[in-house]
Amino acid sequence: MKQANSSVDVLIPVYNAEATLREAIESVLCQTLTDIRIIVVDDGSTDGSAAILEDLRSKDPRVQVLTKPNGGIVDALNFGLTQCSADYIARFDSDDVAFPDHLQNLCNYLDEHADCIAVGSTVEHMDEFGRPLYGLPHPGSPLDANPRWAPALEPYLIHPFMMVRRRSLTEAGGYRYVFNSEDSDLYWRLSERGRLHNLQIVGGKYRVHGGSISSVSVLSGRIMAISSQLAALSALRRRANLQDLQFGKQALMAYRTATTLEGMWEVASAQLSPAEANHLRIAASMKLLELSGYRPFKLEESDYHFIRKSLVHRAELSKKNRDEVRWYLSSAARKIAERDGWGTAFGLIPTGPCLRGYVKAMLARSSFGTHMLNFARRALRPSCDII
Questions:
Q1: 1 belongs to a structural domain
Q2: Phi and psi for 42 in degrees, rounded to 5?
Q3: By CB distance 3.0 to 4.6 Å, which of 59, 75, 77, 259 could disulfide with 71?
Q4: Residues 233 and 380 in one domain
């Protein structure tokens, strides 16, 4: 196979990944594109990762290992970037598996399309044991991105299956402390500099498991919901030539201390205008519902309360976006009902004149049938005309 014109640095952050690390790096070493360098940043691992990396490095000089005290993925990535020198930088994670022609396909596309500055692929999903997962979302076209949507339609590439021009990444400023959404924030900034593209080619296997940063708990899900929507608001500010939002490292501790979505929203709103804060409330609510649809955590009563309160701002959205909000609510309520019962699911539904529509939409998507409709009639106030 003809080799691409440019060499590639593959950047891999590692923290306590001994269970999957060897398989991940060996899948990169076996690429058809051989003119690569693998820059691994060991972010203070305390398990057997260091020994595995030393073994891999001793067997293949393309593996270079950098070690630093634990500081999180943003610090690890930015540290690794200082050591990259190739024209193209590919991202990869320590728990995924790349198919042999993955890097070649991405490199070819960038070589052939000078207007594109970052390209990604689609993936097969797997669980922590490598078993296939089906029905999980795949990124659409970055050209459809819309930061005004709730939740924002991001110019998204699957981060560990992405390749970017090093010059563009450097000019965009690298990674910022947009916790659990540092990739989304980067894509908004890259999209201001050139075109992003998703190849309809499967690049490898992407692992979805409870130990990942955004899946480990509902607390992490809340942080991602807030941060991802702040990244979109940040993009809107730049488009309007307004002062950009600031993303300090100390915000993570503030979010963790706040614990609830309400508390995190209050922390984030400190630097927002009232209109931005209102949009963040409903956008973060819908993002958390989206995440809960395929992440292994359960929402809590405080989340339901915040989401219900956020719906007062749906009138500020377009009709198409309001319809999507209704879909998020009804789909989430159906899943909650099947798992925890309809008494819990009704916690998502706002009271008032729109109750009829939400309940009808929920029941239409329910697998329980007519008897659940009768249950709804009994469970709700007799004065509510829901049917």
A1: no
A2: -85, 105
A3: 75
A4: no
Measured distance CA(92)–CA(120) in Å, rounded: 11
Q: Which residues contact 172 (CB under 8 A, 6 or more apart)?
A: 186, 189, 190, 192, 193
Tens of pLDDT, residues 371-386: 444 444 444 443 333 2
pTM: 0.90
Same domain, yes or no: 70 and 187: yes
Give the Å distances, CA to CA, from 320 to 17, 101, 344.
Answer: 42, 39, 28
228, β-bridge pairs: none
Structure tokens given for 182: 């540092």
Place of tokens 């900034």: 189
Could you read off the pLDDT of 223-248 as tens digits, one per residue?
A: 999 999 999 999 999 999 999 999 99
Give the per-residue SS3 of 44-98. Answer: CCCCCHHHHHHHHHHHCCCEEEEEECCCCHHHHHHHHHCCCCCCEEEECCCCCEE
DSSP string computed for 198-234: EEEEEEEEEE--TTSTTTS-HHHHHHHHHHHHHHHHH
Q: How far is CA 119 from CA 33, 100, 208, 344, in A?
A: 16, 17, 21, 42
